[in-house]
Design a protein that fits this description.
Layout (H helix, E strand, L loop, with lengths): L4 E10 L2 E7 L1 H9 L16 H10 L10 E7 L6 E7 L4 E2 L3 H13 L19 E6 L2 E10 L3 E9 L18 E8 L2 E9 L3 E6 L8 H9 L9 E9 L2 E8 L3 E3 L3 H13 L6 E6 L2 E6 L6 E17 L9
Parallel strand pairs: 2-3, 4-6, 11-12, 13-15
Antiparallel strand pairs: 1-2, 1-17, 3-4, 4-5, 6-7, 7-8, 8-17, 9-10, 10-11, 12-13, 13-14, 15-16, 16-17
Length: about 325
């Protein structure tokens, strides 16, 4: 019987979106002894190693593992950045970016004593917000520490500009963007969809009443439509006012989630493109509030909390097989 691998982990939740965070250093060490276990984590974009897929599927399992929406693997940063973050969905598939996940990764780094930039106090004023820069599959993202307590933090994330060109989303249903009001076929008719990317693909639709539509079944179906070659995340949006919306989320590779960081950003971008809200919006999710802003000609920002849930050791049976990289 193969010896179990001990995996130190920390679990965080960001407005109900929960993630298990692990450092890849344990596996980089292990790879020198058993190279088949770690195949591509050090260089692939995104990594597709046997252990990462096996770990994501097992540790994220709600009954048989720790339970989470996703796994975040942290590697040392390059070019002066604090870290690299790789995101794995609960089904083992890779994701380019997670707006809630990156805040969990930042909390993990701060807990581990990661050095962050901080200006000296001047004139008795509080220091400027500390900042971190984390590499992701959607580029380098900057985070400011807005609040910090023992097991709770609030971060503001620079999410970058939304991607509106269909070829870069990617989306095969239109030749030019922005894609607004696209007639998306659903059971019993069609929905007008706004298709964007926040580094990962999103399909946003507006509804009047969540109880009047089977949005979970719709999300499951839309995720796999052929016009989304990399699958898609789906947001169902109810506009409450010019400055507040309520959203339900179906996430690619996970399913229904309590909230979504990139999904909240995509929902607000969709609202602005459809002239339904102002450019600074409170997003009500099933688990709490996120704040999203998209200044004209600027990047999207996402502000929200993170809480530490648990720390521990997970016991992973080593995967077997050949190179999947």
């Amino acid at each position: 019987m193969a010896k179990l691998i001990e995996v130190p982990f920390a679990k965080y939740q960001a407005v109900g979106n929960d993630f298990v965070v692990v450092s890849a250093s344990k596996f980089l060490l292990l790879a020198r002894r058993t190279p088949h276990i770690l195949l591509t984590i050090a260089g692939a974009e995104p990594p597709q190693s046997l252990w990462a897929i096996a770990l994501a599927r097992s540790i994220c399992h709600r009954q048989m593992g720790v339970g989470a929406d996703g796994l975040l693997v942290i590697l040392p940063g390059r070019a002066g950045h604090q870290a690299r973050m790789f995101v794995f969905n609960a089904d083992g598939s890779s994701a380019e970016m997670s707006g809630n996940g990156i805040r969990c990764a930042a909390a993990y780094l701060l807990e581990r004593g990661q050095q962050v930039k901080r200006r000296a106090k001047t004139g008795g004023r509080s220091a400027s917000p500390r900042t971190l820069r984390i590499e992701t599959g959607a580029g380098v993202k900057s985070l400011c520490v807005v609040e910090a307590e023992e097991t709770r933090w609030v971060f503001r994330v620079g999410m970058g500009k939304p991607i509106l060109a269909p070829g870069k989303i990617p989306f095969h249903g239109a030749d030019a963007g922005p894609v607004v009001g696209f007639p998306l076929p659903v059971r019993g008719g069609s929905l007008g969809a706004t298709v964007t990317s926040m580094g990962n693909p999103h399909c946003s639709v507006f509804v009047e009443d969540f109880d009047a539509v089977d949005w979970s079944a719709m999300g499951r179906a839309i995720e796999g439509y052929e016009i989304f070659p990399n699958r898609t995340n789906v947001e169902f949006i109810r506009v409450l006012s010019r400055t507040e919306i309520e959203v339900r989320f179906w996430e690619r590779g996970v399913g229904q989630t309590q909230s979504s960081g990139t999904g909240s950003c995509a929902a607000v971008v969709a609202c602005i493109l459809n002239r339904r809200t102002a450019r600074k919006v409170r997003v009500r999710t099933l688990a709490g509030i996120l704040e999203v802003a998209w200044p004209e000609n600027g990047e999207v920002s996402l502000t929200g909390p993170v809480e530490l849930v648990a720390r521990g050791t997970y016991y992973l049976a080593p995967p077997s097989g050949g190179n999947q990289g």
